[in-house]
Design a protein that fits this description.
This protein is an alpha/beta fold. Among the domains are: 92 residues, Elongation Factor Tu (Ef-tu), domain 3; 118 residues, 3-Layer(aba) Sandwich (Rossmann fold), CATH 3.40.50. The chain is 24% helix and 27% strand. The chain is built from ten helices and 15 strands. The chain has a seven-stranded antiparallel β-sheet with strand order 4-3-7-1-2-6-5, with no helix packed on it. It is globular. The two termini are 22 Å apart. 41% of the residues are buried. Its cofactor is [2Fe-2S] cluster; [3Fe-4S] cluster. Belongs to the succinate dehydrogenase/fumarate reductase iron-sulfur protein family.
Length: 319
């Protein structure tokens, strides 16, 4: 049986937070810390709270795990073919963690006990003051179909790794930024745009295909311009826009294939333009335990539910 590499040092979305150290640290499989992985020296280049020290200080304490909470469904509205906008009342101590870019939750039918029915769903929007979570569900299977017909749902959160390139989103300030949208990954752009605007960036949106009305309304409410284009016909238009506007950062909410096309356009302008992309990998547990999210990057196994990956590295090596 193939084993995970022990010497991969990547940033973990949970590092230094409430849920660190996690089960991976206790088993010696920490994504970030080389000391926990068995190395003789620290070379993680991490400037936050030391996971190794946290682990040593907390061995006698139970791991702080995310808990399932039964929450009221306030409304369910069909907004497309098997697409539903669901508003959920969540506790305010949970809501305060759901405004970050890339954050997602697990939802589960109130009548199911097994964790196999947990469905990872991106946070579209959160009203922190009122504790109202908004998500878009594609009701196509046993995990999601029952949710749209219920008045309550189990919510397990927060999970943070729904985007590759979180550091670039959070650190970019006072610059020209572009959001490119294609498909259902558009559901996570609201928190991204808000963070970029909060950091005094100029933001515009380019949409290939259809933009859901609810997403369009929320983007326009932030006074962000929306442009529509066709990736097959308008590559030169996008190229010219990126070059003329001196775009320094791009977030692409789309499939791997589409994001790769955007990366190629960026590289033809300037390979130094920062790029973040949506994480569309299969996620089942969100804790790096089950292995469903593992991808092979240039011969190395990476747990994509927690590990941050450079977007260009990912798009270059993933099939």
């Amino acid at each position: 049986m193939e084993t995970l590499e022990k010497n991969i040092i990547r940033f973990c979305a949970d590092a230094g937070g409430k849920y660190c150290p996690c089960h991976l640290a206790y088993s010696g499989d920490c994504i970030k810390c080389p000391m926990i992985q068995g190395k003789n020296k620290c070379d993680c280049d991490w400037q936050g709270v030391c996971t190794y020290n946290l682990l040593n200080h907390s061995r006698i304490s139970p791991i702080d795990e995310r808990k399932e909470i039964l929450c009221d469904i306030l409304s369910t509205e069909q907004i497309g073919d098997n697409l539903y906008l669901i508003k959920i009342k969540v506790p305010k101590d949970i809501a305060k963690y759901l405004y970050e870019p890339g954050v997602y939750v697990f939802l589960k039918d109130k009548d199911k006990n097994s964790d196999i029915f947990n469905a990872p769903i991106t946070v579209m929007d959160i009203n922190e003051e009122e504790g109202i979570l908004e998500v878009i569900i594609h009701a196509i299977g046993a995990k999601t179909k029952p949710i749209i017909n219920n008045d309550k749902v189990y919510v397990k959160s927060p999970y943070y790794n729904g985007i590759f390139g979180l550091k670039e989103i959070k650190s970019n300030k006072e610059d020209n930024c572009l959001i490119v949208i294609n498909g259902l990954s558009q559901a996570n752009v609201i928190n991204v745009i808000r963070r970029l605007l909060r950091n005094n960036n100029n933001v515009e949106v380019f949409v290939n295909g259809t933009l859901l009305d609810i997403i369009k309304e929320k983007i326009e409410s932030m006074n962000v311009k929306i442009n529509y284009f066709n990736i097959e016909k308008d590559k030169q238009i996008l190229f010219n826009y990126i070059k003329e506007k001196e775009i320094s950062f791009v977030y692409c909410a789309a499939s791997v294939e589409f994001s790769r096309q955007i990366m190629n356009i960026l590289n033809s302008v300037d390979k130094n333009i920062k790029l973040s992309i949506s994480n569309n990998n299969l996620i089942c547990c969100g804790e790096g335990i089950c292995g469903a999210c593992i991808v092979d990057l240039n011969g190395k196994k990476v747990k994509t539910c927690k590990a941050q990956i450079d977007s260009r590295e990912y798009l270059t090596h993933i099939k």
